[in-house]
Design a protein that fits this description.
11 helices; 0% strand; 67% helix; 221 residues
Amino acid sequence: MTGWLVFGGFAVLAIALLLLIRFPKRFWTVPAMAVMLAGAGYAWQGQPSLPDHPVEGVASVRPLDPDLIAAREGLFGRFNFDYSYFMAADAMTRAGAPQLAANVMLGAVRKAPNDLGLWSGLGLALAEHDGDQLSPAARYAFDKAETLAPNHPGPPFYRGVALARAGDLAGARQAWGKALRLLPPSASYRDDMVSVMLKLDPGLAAVARGAQAPAAAPARP
């Protein structure tokens, strides 16, 4: 019972925060969906009727990268159809439920099967759900996104993130190189993308410095 009271308290606080920041009313379905899915996940996975007890060995949850979110909004837009599903999936990720996050994105591509942003997000969600491994399902999602928009930098950028998390830095660099070549020169979110790359592959900074270093002067005879 205490669990439901705590959950209800968080829901009330979330509503108060939305009112405080004057969140657009036409997008209230986004946080409502997140709360609904969180409640469903808690009822399904948790045991809210049991009394409180100490918990040991809580699994770690990967925090959401603000630079990745900023890059996503630059690549795929904000306050649009994609945004509502990305927000709901983010809520599931924060709750430590990657399976539910993947389910959210799977539902999204079923509603909009020709949306490259949602397919890219599904690929990343599936990879995270599979323990940061690029499963065949995740590869299919990335391939689908690139097929829908072969000249868009979003799908190869997201593929690179998944590859880097899986430990395939060579593959990640290849995908990111393609994304940067497709990126408009004036894109305001370029720095956000590069920041994500450097966090996942710190060796990129040394590679970039080496490429920019002037060639050594030839030795005199």
